[in-house]
Design goal:
The complex is a heterodimer. By secondary structure, chain A is an alpha+beta fold. Among the domains of chain A are: about 180 residues, Aldehyde Oxidoreductase, domain 4 (2-Layer Sandwich), CATH 3.30.365; about 140 residues, Aldehyde Oxidoreductase, domain 4. In chain A, about 30% of the residues lie in helices and about 25% in strands. Chain A has a 7-stranded mixed beta sheet with strand order 3-5-1-12-9-10-11. In chain A, strands 7-15-14-13-8 form a 5-stranded mixed beta sheet. In chain A, strands 16-24-25-26 form a 4-stranded mixed beta sheet, sandwiched between helices. In chain A, helix 7 crosses helix 8. Chain B is an alpha+beta fold. Helices cover about 25% and strands about 25% of the residues of chain B. Chain B is built from 3 helices and 5 strands, in the order βαβααβββ. A 5-stranded mixed beta sheet of chain B has the order 2-1-5-3-4. In chain B, a hairpin with a 2-residue loop joins strand 3 and strand 4. The radius of gyration of chain B is 11 Å and the shape is globular. Chain B starts with a strand and ends in a 5-residue tail after the last strand. Classes of the chains: A alpha+beta, B alpha+beta. Chains A and B meet through strand 7 and helix 10 of A and helix 1, helix 3, strand 4 and strand 5 of B.
């Protein structure tokens, strides 16, 4: 159901109150990672490898340590040995051991009395390297003769005979592929490539760490998940997690890239070595781009069989993805099940390989793996629609997954909203606008699983009847407002009477990060449970006051009241009245809920984009853009629309401009926003949104996550629109003006 | 008996079977039963898997119930942004 037709079922849910962080952010009062200061604080700088692959023969910090004001230097020798698995990966990425694995890999760090002095000292740390052969491209890294990055890193799944850089393999599917292709009128097979892109959050990584020789410490950090920061930093440093208290700052974007550690243990290690003085570490933009997780680059083959009326009879993919020089970092495990998730297919097969390359350790990026998969699959679907002269939305409706469909990755879908997004896109006025010369239209759909995860929430009634909700999921997209709305709805009080705080690791049980589009779903669900617990206690207190049974009291409109005429005649006892007496009626009133949240509802979206391509320059202008996505229930529609628009903006950047450019020497050539071109407001039209609401039965208010799906359709939708506008199909991203122009000229001969 | 579908790379660790039937009332019991019946699966399961029980993906909940007629799919451990 489109949001404009909401039934008024709720008092607050679906309204658009002012955002709680708005005033602080627009007045500069919000405290981000780099704003945190402490008395006696030192500043840190990091020495990074200038080589893509090099053996570290010697590190000499003598000259740096001789500078007045330099207090500590750490190298890998200062970190504990014996770690295994992902803990070893984290430590290896925090500081290189024997070998620097990518351009920008941290080699040493220094703390000094000022930031400038720390940078000077870093330049005085002498590192002797033996440069090793490197490999950057995913296909090249798998090829015979490619330099081996980590011998013996492959897991059980890799077939014999593959290059040692291939570290993971997976394969799954269902149905008779051969029979499916035989039944098709048209079978097409194409290859597609995407470059690595960065999450591009505006706030660089920043932290302030303090660690004493007794192993007890604190950290203030910009992160999507402070329990992850605690666990990972403790593992890397060999300290106990409970001795590290981590407080998250306000966050200037994360998009998955702030769900892990990159340099946080360095601040703690330097602090410990500098006698426990706090150490502040703030990355530059170049450090962010060189040494924090971009997403993977991908090389993908797709094959699809289709009847002449648009029924897909069989489909298969073979994907290769590199996630840097560390095992387990590519999103191949997510990309494959996303590839055909939008389709109801009788036969489908997936093959995937994870490959090591001399690039930074990849991190999650908004629906990890799904945008690349969508680019490959949706592009080929579009190519076949054009060849068969079929409407791309009709073909998707004909093949679209719905409730009861066996998904391409196995399980059967419960209630999902893909078809509703397709129908709304087709009915939208944008789809009927007549296009002019050099203009084209593209359509694509996308999918993300969404996630529940470990969640702990507390809710406390204040003395005046207002309410504080403590959550452990940093707010990167409006979750505080949404959780406040849900708690207020349940309690029957005003939204303004609820304050939601993101609290530190000492205040709640373990919370997973804000990732997987889970915060509003999982913390919101837990907050509703916590509110119900508090309501039960308030009803109990009222029952005691009235001397009637607890079950004879109900909660309505923010007050306890007799549940019927037989319960007695008592005026409603408001939350404020109950709260004012709570000290003398049994003590503080609170609710608490912790759970590994289940009941996740999958998310689908459909995008329509119109572009114009300048035939003289190859530049693509986005004329109009439409996002239609199923939110389950839009708790705060303005934030939902913001998520849709943000996902589309990032996808447009990925499609048209963003890429990691490496030189022959394996060094990143564009480590700044001047050359790594993310879209700015003037590059984009107003992005139109339509919120579809197919409530998720697994959430008390029907919430599905909305944060991630929106980044997937833009890549293939833009490719389809450019193909129509320019008359050439680009099968590798980004579609820069130079690449589009070259393709147009090649077509003309 | 619940039916557990294995992705291809796991099948050779389970004697080539695409579907393994196990007696289990929870996700945890199911994973334990799989490892007991096919010890070769232990490294893959210890590395982390997501489990789809009928129409729901369960990333990490050993006590989630499963029913005798449940269709279960093991999936790669899913990460989100």
């Amino acid at each position: 159901m489109p949001k404009d037709n909401a039934t008024g079922e709720f008092r607050l849910i679906g309204t658009r109150p002012n955002r709680p962080d708005g005033l602080d952010k627009v007045t500069g009062r919000a405290r981000y990672g780099a704003d945190i200061v402490a008395p006696n604080m030192l500043h840190a700088a990091v020495v990074r490898s200038p080589h893509a692959h090099a053996r570290i023969k010697k590190i000499d910090a003598t000259k740096a340590l001789a500078l007045e004001g330099v207090k500590a230097v750490v190298t890998r020798a200062d970190l504990p040995k014996g770690l295994t698995g992902e803990d070893l990966n984290l430590q290896e990425n925090t500081l290189a051991g024997d070998v620097a694995l990518y351009d920008g890999h941290a080699v040493a760090a220094v703390a000094a009395s000022s930031a400038l002095l720390a940078q000077d000292a870093a330049r005085l740390i002498e590192v002797e390297y033996e440069v090793l052969p490197h490999v950057i491209d995913v296909d090249a890294a798998m090829a015979k003769g490619a330099p081996v990055i980590r011998e013996g890193a492959a897991d059980y799944s890799v077939p014999e005979g593959m290059h040692p850089n291939v570290v993971r393999h997976m394969e799954f599917g269902h149905g008779d592929l051969e029979a499916g292709f035989a039944a098709a009128d048209l079978v097409r097979e194409q290859s597609y490539k995407t470059e690595a892109t960065h999450q591009g959050y505006i706030e660089p990584h920043a932290c302030l760490g303090q660690l004493g020789e007794d192993g007890r410490g604190e950290m203030w950090v910009c992160t999507q998940g402070h329990w992850y920061i605690r666990r990972m930093s403790a593992a890397v440093l060999g300290i106990e997690a409970a001795n590290l208290r981590v407080t998250p700052s306000e966050i200037g974007g994360g998009f998955g890239g702030k769900t892990t550690i990159f340099m946080e243990p360095l601040a703690l290690a330097l602090s410990r070595k500098a006698g426990g003085r706090p150490v502040k570490l703030v990355m530059s933009r170049a450090e962010v781009l060189r040494a924090t997780g971009p997403t993977a680059s991908a090389s993908m083959d797709v094959k699809i069989g289709m009847t002449k009326d648009g029924k897909i009879t069989a489909a298969s993919v073979n994907f290769r993805m590199q996630g840097g020089a560390f095992v387990g970092m590519s999103p191949i495990g997510e990309a494959l099940p996303c590839a055909f998730a939008c389709y109801d297919l009788p036969a489908v097969h997936h093959v995937g390989y994870e490959v090591l390359a001399n690039r930074p350790k990849a991190a999650a990026y908004r629906a990890p793996g799904s945008p690349m998969a969508a680019f490959a699959v949706e592009s080929l679907v579009d190519e076949m629609c054009r060849e068969l002269k079929l409407d791309p939305i009709d073909v998707r409706l004909k093949n679209g997954a719905k409730e009861g469909t066996k998904s391409s990755y196995g399980p059967v879908y419960n209630r999902i909203g893909l078809v509703e997004t397709l129908e709304a896109a087709k009915a939208h006025p944008n789809y009927a606008i007549k296009l002019g010369p050099n203009q084209g239209r593209g359509v694509a759909s996308g999918f993300w699983f969404n996630h529940g995860g470990e969640t702990s929430v507390s809710l406390a009634i204040g003395e005046d009847g207002t309410v504080q909700v403590s959550i452990g999921t940093p707010d990167i997209g409006g979750s505080r407002a949404s959780i406040g709305l849900m708690a207020a709805e349940k309690l029957g009080i005003a939204y303004e009477d609820v304050r939601v705080n993101v609290v530190e690791t000492g205040a709640l049980g373990v919370n997973e990060p804000t990732h997987g589009s889970r915060a509003t779903f999982a913390s919101g669900k837990a907050a509703v449970e916590a509110a119900e617990q508090a309501i039960r206690e308030m009803c109990r207190r009222a029952a005691k006051e009235w001397d009637i049974p607890e079950e004879a009291v109900e909660w309505k409109d923010g007050a306890a009241m007799p549940a019927g005429p037989n319960a007695g005649k008592f005026p409603p006892m408001s939350i404020a009245e109950i709260a004012s007496k709570m000290g003398s009626t049994g003590g503080p009133i609170s609710g608490h809920h912790e759970v590994t949240a289940e009941g996740v509802g999958a998310s689908f979206g459909t995008h329509v984009v119109d572009v114009e391509v300048d035939p003289e320059t190859g530049r693509t202008t986005v004329l109009r853009y439409l996002v239609v996505q199923d939110a389950g229930r839009a708790i705060h529609p303005a934030y939902v629309e913001g998520q849709y628009q943000g996902g589309a903006a990032q996808g447009i950047g990925w499609a048209l401009n963003e890429e990691y450019v490496y030189g022959e020497d394996g060094r990143l050539q564009n480590p700044m926003f001047l050359d790594y071109r993310i879209p700015v407001a003037s590059d984009l039209p107003m992005i139109d949104t339509v919120i579809i609401e197919v409530p998720n039965p697994g959430h008390p208010y029907g919430v599905r996550g909305v944060g991630e799906t929106g980044i997937s359709p833009p890549l293939p939708a833009l490719a389809a629109a450019v193909a129509e506008a320019a008359g050439v199909r680009l099968r590798s991203l980004p579609m820069t003006p130079a690449k589009v122009l070259a393709a147009m000229r090649a077509r003309k001969g | 008996m619940a039916r557990v579908h294995l992705w291809s790379s796991l099948r050779r660790l389970a004697g080539g079977a695409e579907v393994v039937e196990v007696e289990a009332a929870t996700v945890g019991q199911m994973l334990d039963a799989l490892v007991k019946a096919h010890p070769g699966l232990a490294p893959a399961i210890e590395a982390g898997v997501s489990v789809a029980v009928d129409d729901e993906i369960i990333a990490n909940a050993r006590h989630s119930p499963i029913h005798p007629e449940s269709e279960i799919y093991l999936l790669q451990r899913l990460k989100g942004g």
